[in-house]
Amino acid sequence: MTNRVRELRLAKGMAQGELAQALQVSRQTINSIENGRYTPSLPLALAMARFFGLTVEGIFDADDA
Amino acid sequence: MQTMRRNRLYWATPLLGVFIGLAYLAAFWLGGRPGDGVIGLIVMLAFTGALMLLGRRSETVQGLLDHRDERITGMDLKATAVTAVAMILAVLVGFVVDIAHGGSGEPFAAIGAIGGLAYLCALLFFRLRR
Fold this sequence. Notes:
The structure holds 2 protein chains of 2 kinds.
Chain A: E1 2-3, H1 5-11, H2 16-23, H3 27-34, H4 42-52, H5 56-59, E2 60-61
Antiparallel strand pairs in A: 1-2
Chain B: H1 2-30, H2 34-57, H3 59-66, H4 70-100, H5 108-129
């Protein structure tokens, strides 16, 4: 599973902590998602998509599916 | 609404710590050793205080307390499962060793039965809910 979270966050000029606060998760979780160590739940993926104004598929790519 | 839920969850673990400390105090008191009960209460209060102080500095501890972060909550669940496996192994080993020494296997048999029953009840509960 790859994702564009880091790219999208940096495009908004946000720090990991700021995105974490906006999504009500920890900064560690944002870091883990960006590094591909953690795959978020569907509700969190949807919240991210809504936050960035994209679809879930526009952020996450299940390249091994 | 969601904030209220988070706040309630945040206080659940510290309150449980204080409750356990009071239970120690009551149990030792009833057993005629109030001094040990006071020590038990102090230990639990210190543990609870340390947990709350750590929660201010560590995102992980904060997440364990308020259950706000799904990743940390998932880690907590997995760690709990590992703990359960360790306890099951300890109970099984204790039961076998006690039987080998000519004992009745108690209290390991009773603890194992409670664990097995709890597992089946939880399985049934989640099967009906999902």
